[in-house]
Amino acid sequence: MSLLGSARFLMRSLQRSQVQPVARITSKPAKETISAGEQAIALVTLFVTILGPSGWILAHLEDYKKGE
Prior knowledge:
The protein has 68 residues and is an all-alpha fold. It has 3 helices and no strands. It has helices at residues 2-16, 36-59, 61-66. The radius of gyration is 27 Å and the shape is flat. The protein starts with a helix and ends with a helix.
């Protein structure tokens, strides 16, 4: 019986202590618009920066396995 009572207490306390957002974040329109060309350059740079080294390692994986 005490196990059931403690489970009820736990469920009630979890329901009462829900997290309330503290920060009041508001969004505004962008001050400057970014053109499609600038977005494309940023995306290509991001992909090359992240995927370039990974592709290099995968392309030379057999060389790394030889251990010479």
